[in-house]
Each structure stands twice: as C-alpha cells, then as structure tokens.
Amino acid sequence: MLSVSAIDAQNIEEKKSDTIQSKDIQEVILQFQHKKQFVDKAVYTFDKEALEKARYAKDLLKTLPELQLDPISNTITSTRGQKILFLINSIEASDMQIRSVQPKDVVKVEYFDNPPARWSNRADLVVNIITRNPETGYVFGADLSSAVATGFLNGSAYGNYTKGKNDFGLEYSINYRDYNNRTVKSNYEYNLGNSVYRTEENRKDHFGYTGQNITLRYTRSILQNYTFQAKLITDISTNFVKGNGESRFFKDNLLEDHRMFKNSNSNYTSPTLDLYFSKNIGKKDELTINVLGSHYKTSSSEGAKEWNVLSNAAVYDNEMKLDATQTGIIGEVAHTHTFEEGNLSSGYRFSNTFIANDLNNLSGFSKYDVNYFEQYLYTEFTGKKDKFSYRISAGITNISNKTELNTDTQWVFSPKIILSYALKNNQNFRLVSSYKPQSPSSESLSSNIVQWAPNIVQRGNPNLRSSQKWTNNFVYSLNNKKFDLNANLFYIYNKRAINQYFILDEDAARYALMYENAKSAQQFGLQLSGSYKPFGNSLLVIKAVLTPATETLRTSNGAVIKNNYISNYFSLSSEYKSFNIQYQFNIPVYNLDGAFLRTNENANHVLANYKVKDWTFTTGMYWIGMPSDYKTKSLPESVVNYSRHNQIWNNRSMFILGLSYDFSKGKQIQVNRKLNNNAGPAATF
C-alpha cells in the first residue's frame, strides 16, 4: 500500500497575501481574472462573470487550462492524464464536497503541478480550493445521469449541516455499468517443442461493475487554535465478466475448432476510519497528526474452459478462487514553521498493509500471508528572493515487502529540488528534479496463476524489487488574457522498472506471462499543454495537449525495446449565459507497457448543460459513431506473438440524459487540514 500526504509549503509572498481581509479579497476577484506562478504551483482567481455562471466550485475548476470535466465519470480530470488529489482549504475533498462549495465563496485555486514532499508519491497534481471564513448554514444536492439505451449510470447525493464550530456531512455516490456487447478478438502465435501453434479467439462478453461510496464526517474547528475531524468511509465494489466464444486452434497444419467460456467476479466492502487533529502552536508553528485504519475481506474468482468441439475433450479447465483478509494502518505526524525567509516542513509517515490469502488455483490450495511496509522521513524548505524561487526537499524512504517467497528491504534517499525564475510579461522558467522509489503492486507480487489460453498462463512474481525513478523537467510557462501555455522538456530514468513479458516454462511445457525487474526504462520528450481563448473569455476555449516522445526499455536479458509516439488531446468549449457545451476528442496512440504496446482509450464526446436556478439539465453523446476501443500487441522481441482488440459496442453513440439539484444556505466549515491519507487498494489478481 502506498499512501502519501503533504503540508502546503507556501512562500513568503503568498503567505502575506493570505492576510488580506475578506472584503479586500472579494474586491480583487470581482475585478480581475488572474494567474500567478510560484515555484511549485499556479494560483488562479476568477472574475465576476465566471463566478456568476458557475453552479459550484467544480465548474470553476474545469476552466483551468489543464483540467477538464470527464463526461464518462462526471469528475474533474487532468488533460495530461495525470492523477489528481483535490483539497478544500488543504483538506482532502471528494467530488461531492467540491460541489458543496458555492462559487462566491471561492477566494482562489492553487494548482500544484509539483506537489510538496508528502503529496508527491500520492498524486501527480494537487488542486487546493481556498474558501472564505465559515458561517452557520446547510447545503445539499443530488445528481443523476444515465444512458437511455444501455446500463450506464452515475449518481450522487450529499448533505452538510453546520452549527457553530461543528460540521456534519453525509455523502453517497454510485457508478453503475452493465454492458452485454463487448467483443474481444485475441491472437497468439508461438513455437513450442518442434511445432508452431496459433490461436484465433473471438469472444463476446457481458460485463459490468458497481462502485459505491458512503462517507460520514464530523468536524470541530476553532480558527487559529485547533481542528479535529473524524471520517468513516465505506467503499462497496462488485464486478463480473461472463464471456463465451469460439477459437480456431492450429498446430502446424492441423486445425481444431474450439468453444470456450471465461467468467470472473470480485467483491469487497471496505470500511475505513480516518482521524485527524491539527493544533496551532503560537503564530509560526503547527503540529498535525493523522491516523487511518481499515480492515476488510476481498473475494475474487475466475472460471475458464476451452474444449474441442468434435471430441468434447477439454483443452484446459481453469478454476481460481481467492479470499483475502486485508488490514491496513497509516500514521503521520507533521510540523511546520514559518521563517521570514520561507517555510520549513518536516514529518514522518508510515503505512503497513497485512494480507492473509486463501488461494485455490492451477497449483492447488495454499494459505500464505504478505506484508507491505513503507516509512518516510522528510524535511522541506520553500523560499523566495527577488525573481528567484526555490523548494528543496530531502527524505529517506524505507520499503519492506514480505511476500510468500521473499523479503525485499530498501533504504533510498529521496531528494527533490525546484528552481524557478520569473521573466517579464507573465513568463516563467522552472527546473525540477526528483528521485524516489516505487513499490511493485500487490497484483505483480502475487503468487497467483491463471490460464490465459492453450499453453499460456499468467502469474505474478513474489521476487520483484522496488524500482527507483529519477524525473527531470524543464518548464517554460506563458500566461496572458488569451494564452495559458506550458512547454515541458522532460527526461525520466527508471532503474529496475517493472516489466511484464512472456517466458518459456520448460518444466511445464508452456509459456507464462509474468513480471520482472527490467534493467532500466527511459522516457524523454516535449509536452505542450494549455488553453487558448480567441476572444479573451469563455465564449470559446480551446484546450490541447501534444506530447512527442520516445520511450525505451532494457529488459533483464539486455534486449532493447523502443517506441516513438505523439500523444494528444483536444477540447473545444463554449459558454454563454446559462448554457454550456463542450466537445472532446483524441487520436489514440500506442504506448509501451512492459513488453506490449497498448492504445489509450479513444474519445469523441459532446456534452451540453443548461442551468435554471438550482437545477441543471444535461444531455450528451459519447463515443460518437464508434465503440470504445482498446488495442494491445506484443513487440517483435516477444517469444509469443500476441494481439488483442476489445470493443464495447454498447458505448457507440451513447445518448445521455442528466439532472442535478444543488441548494445552499450560509457556508459550512472547511477545515485547513494538512495531512491527507487513504488506505491502499483491495488485493485482487
């Protein structure tokens, strides 16, 4: 389990700006729409027109140049495809909490494209919404969007009540999918023994999933003194696949017609208790403690069978069942001190996940335990002198992963440095360099084994070691009334990168798809991202991301795999009074994923909404004229020539209708929380 959090290390200039009285801030944001670039973040304020058009803070976020509203999940995502952590006054916030913030209460938004030390392992981007002082009040709302002709539904409801120094919150969300027309075409070709084998598989799947979240929250906050928060979070997840198909199986020149089925399902209910306490010590110091615990069971199973149509003889018959009991605990303590020259943040965090497994698979029945432990001790200083800004971090990371067969323990020095220089006319140069370890996933470390195809199995590798990643970025930024652009020249070196590839299992006379520590992986290129407003307002906004890049993998046996690509994303949006419409599209490209090349998900979506007082009516069409499409293929270096093409035809030209209602009176407490942790994902394979 990896779980990281952070303290917002603001520089002196920003610290002074936070002392402006609420009335003065209101005058500023009513008169200007402004971006200010700092060493590790950009700070955005919004003009009167933007505040009046927005339904809630979420509508303001999607106007940022590198953020978008993803119509599929109905959440704010990065146009660059990066993982985002959202905060409200430095407390971790859900999508529904962001909706509960009224636009008029938003003072500014901090966009960290280089998160401080304790966030850096948890998210690529951090978005922190700064709001005004709390008042007594309540807020509630609900949202529902659904496809007309297939099983696609997103729904949520929330409520907050504030009285004095106490705040009570309740949230619920559901994402439901049920598709009965996914086609899967797979091809395998390989040499085994003295024969050449080829499989041409065509399958049709009925699959789906349901994810639900229930959060109950209590907060007591006394400004300039202390904050206490307790959250009980319950995640409920179920998913299934029911697939049937046929296969043409070739051995040299002999052909056999096969039938097959592949079924799987998994489910878990994960309760998590999150306790947080922060205390101001004088005017320059703050001490923060966060403890989080979870305990739950996960159940997953898979059944797959293939047989000869003429003889009815089984080619393979795979049954797998995994029951895992997972216990996790995270603890963190942090201290911040403000100097005249800058801010110093220091802290210690640990996370431990223990998993007891009962596994029945191709190898028989087994019981085994695994334990994943990580601790991180760090200090970080942020400062500014004239046009030059800097942030220097130093940390020690200890990762100890104990699997069924191996224990891997590493101590790694984890530094990060950011240097920034401000130019004239809202231009800025930044140099960023960091080094940190990355633990393998529980799936890759698993001892499980399942049948993939005739003569081919998939398995994990309990002997994997953590990789070590060195990331470098040189960024040029430009901002004016029409343009908000970033040009990022990047180079990434990953020592012992986790790689998935096929090997020959001579003892069992078959091939296995498994994980290894490659010697290294490298990636370099130029990323251009941002937005363009031809009229200087929201009447027309063009967002784009273009990334020409080269990626190289050197496997454990010395083979070099190389891939060149130009990833891309484009968005057009228009807003006029209470009406908003946006169109998103991309051209999928192949990216290197271990020994495979995989395409990103295609996009061709249009979404429109109209606001009438507290109600919002939404309609749209996703994957216009095409199904959602996913392709995978092996590289020439692979001992198994493999390709796979998945298409979800239920999604083709999927027509959506939606309705939401949001109401508020007064303002609720928004805690200035500096530690944000979450439990690790459920252990499945």
Characterise this structure:
By secondary structure, the chain is mainly beta. It has a single domain, classed as Maltoporin, Chain A (Beta Barrel), CATH 2.40.170. It has five helices and 39 strands. Strand 30 and strand 31 (560-576) form a beta hairpin.
Structural class: mainly beta
The CATH homologous superfamily name equals: TonB-dependent receptor, beta-barrel domain
**What portion of residues belong to β-strands?**
over 45%
For the secondary structure, the number of strands is 39
- Architecture per CATH nomenclature, i.e. the level-2 architecture: Beta Barrel
**Average of per-residue pLDDT values:** 88
CATH topology: Maltoporin, Chain A
What brief labels describe this structure?
39 strands; Maltoporin, Chain A; disordered N terminus; about 675 residues; about 65% strand; 6-stranded mixed β-sheet; globular
